[in-house]
Amino acid sequence: MERIRAEIITEANLFIGDNPSTFEIGGIDLYTKTDYNNRPQIPASSIKGTMRKIVRDMENEEIAVKIKESYKRYLENLKRNSCEQNKKMQETNNGSLAERLSRLEAKMDDAINNASAQYLFGIKAFNDTPKLIFSDFNMKDPKEKAPFSVDTKNTIKNQDDPDKISSNPRTYKTVRPGIAFSGEIIFYHLNALEEYDLSEAEIKKFVESVLLKFNEGVYRLGNSGSRGYGKIHVKILGE
C-alpha cells in the first residue's frame, strides 16, 4: 500500500488546543495537545484539516481539476452499478426499501455534483471510497526533556462598549520551536482511480506538494496562527 512518510519540525511555538488535566488558579490557561505519556502530539485531524484548506485554495490548478474529474467519473460508475443492483432488490422487496435506495441515489447525485479534489480527504456519507488516511504525528525523539514552552499572549476585548477596550492576558503551554514529529499518510484504495486516468504516482506528487506548502509560512498548524504560532517546516522522508 502506497504511503507518504513525513517529518514536521516546529519553527515557532505550536498550540493545538487540548483540555487541561487539572485546573490551576494563576497557572496555565490553555494547553497544547499531548499523548498518553504527556508528550506533545500533532493529531491527524489538525494536519488533515489544514491540508484540506490548502487543497481548497488549489482547486483551479490542473492536477486538482484532474483529481476532481477522476472522482466524478468514479462516483458516476459507482452509481450505475448501484442502480442496477437496486433494481434487482426492488423486484423482490417492498416499498420501504425502494425509498431508502432512492435516498441513497440522491446522496450519490449530490456527491457527483459537488466533486472536488478535497474528496482525497473523504466523501461525506460515503465511508469506503478512495482516500488518504492520516496518522497522528508523534515526537521523533521521545527522550526530549524540554519540548514545551510557556507563553503569554494578550487578547484585546471589546465588550458592548467600543470605547472600553481591555487586555486579557492568557498563558499558553505550547510546543517550542525545534521539536521534530514524524508520521505518515496512507493511500486507501486510491489505485481504484487509475481506471479513471489518475495514477497513484500523480496523487503522491500532488499530496507531497500540498505538504511542502507549509514551508512557505502562510499555512500554519493549530490555533493562534495570527499571533505567530504554528509555523512549521515539512520534510518528505524516504521509504
Primary descriptors:
alpha+beta; 6-stranded antiparallel β-sheet; single chain; 4-stranded mixed β-sheet; 10 strands; 239 residues
Give an overview of the whole structure.
- This protein is of the alpha+beta class.
- Helix content is 32%, strand content 25%.
- It has 4 helices and 10 strands.
- The chain has helices at 44-57, 62-92, 95-113, 200-212, and strands at residues 3-10, 17-18, 30-32, 41-42, 131-134, 137-139, 148-158, 165-175, 180-188, 232-237.
- The strands form 2 sheets. Strands 1, 4, 5, 6, 9 and 10 form a 6-stranded antiparallel sheet that branches.
- A hairpin with a 6-residue loop joins strand 7 and strand 8.
- Helix 2 (62-92) packs antiparallel against helix 3 (95-113).
- It is elongated and about 65 Å long.
